[in-house]
Structure formats: C-alpha cells, structure tokens
Design brief:
The chain has 174 residues and is mainly alpha-helical. It is built from 9 helices and no strands. It has a single domain, classed as Orthogonal Bundle (Peroxidase, domain 1). The longest helix is centred in the C-terminal third of the chain and has 17 residues. It is globular. This is Type I-E CRISPR-associated protein Cse2/CasB. InterPro entries: CRISPR-assoc_prot_Cse2.
Length: 174
C-alpha cells in the first residue's frame, strides 16, 4: 500500500510558467504561509547570496530547473512576496499596472533595457513602486522578462510590457 500524501503537503508546480507563477503566488499569499518566511523572501536581493528561507521555498515550490537561473527566480519570489496580498492577477497586464500607477517612461526604458542583475534590481524597484500603490499585475509577464534567455524571447517579453504601458500611459515623466 502506498503512503498517502498529507493534505498540508505542497503541490508541485506544473510545467508551464503560468501555472508555476500561479502556484508560487498562491503559496506565498496563503493565509497559513508563515509571515516570517514571507518577510525573509521580501528581503531577497540580487546582489546577496540566497537566504535559507529562499532555499526552503525553492526546493518545495519552484520548477525543477530553477537552479539554472537562481537569481531570476530569487527576484520573482521576492517580488511576489513584496506585492502580497493578492500579488498575481492574470487578467491585469504588467504594463497596464505600471502605466496606471504612474510609473515613468524613463524608469520603464531603463527596466526594459537592463540585463542580468541590473534587470533583477530594477524589476524589484518597479515592484516596490507597484506595491506602494497597492497595484497588482500578471506576474507571468515579469517572469518572462527575467527568465527569457534568447534575444527574440526577451524582446517579445519587453514588447508585451511596453505595448500595454503605452496603450494606457498618461504622459507621466521623471
């Protein structure tokens, strides 16, 4: 007889990015998720080594290949934790959320042109901006921006964010 999995055991994230992001957001935002762990995830920084809280979370909830892009996943997890409660809204484009919150074109330009750890840092700044405005968005779009490795895919991620930003932009400047 196979041992049964206790009901409190976390489900493994599914294979698609959208389902992985949904799982991560639901887990971090869950009422029973320890507030100390959520706070530790909020404090993750691209220029610091991962905390034990990140490793505990990563090995339980991130896709199996997360280690290949550890810093990008740290930024995703930290950003989702920063935007709690209700960090992920699949029906609300990231560019729309940035535009409606008054994010400036100059900041968007820097964000979309950035690479590597600079991208992670600037994305977390954008997330803090959204969190301060109690805004939420589709985290899959931010994840694609961070995780896309080919130039064509990275450009498609940039374009998706820029498209929704400019469709909804109200001439905010720095």
């Amino acid at each position: 007889m196979m041992p049964s999995i206790p009901p409190e055991a976390p489900e493994k994230p599914a294979a698609t990015l959208a389902s992985s992001i949904g799982h991560i957001a639901a887990t971090i935002d869950a009422e029973h998720f320890p507030s100390g762990e959520r706070a530790a995830l909020r404090r993750l920084s691209p220029d610091a080594p991962p905390s034990l809280a990140f490793y505990r979370f990563a090995f339980k909830h991130l896709p199996p290949d997360w280690e290949a892009q550890r810093n990008a996943w740290m930024a995703i997890v930290s950003g989702i934790a920063l935007m709690c409660p209700r960090p992920h809204r699949p029906d609300r484009a990231a560019g729309l959320a940035l535009a409606e919150a008054g994010y400036s074109e100059k900041r968007l330009e820097r964000l979309l042109a950035a690479e590597g750890d600079t991208l992670h840092t600037l994305l977390l700044r954008a997330v803090r901006f959204l969190a301060a405005k109690n805004a939420t968005c589709n985290w899959v779009q931010f994840a694609r921006l961070l995780l896309s490795t080919g130039e064509e895919k990275r450009e498609a991620a940039r374009l998706a964010i820029a498209r929704e930003f400019y469709r909804n932009h109200k001439d905010h400047k720095d």
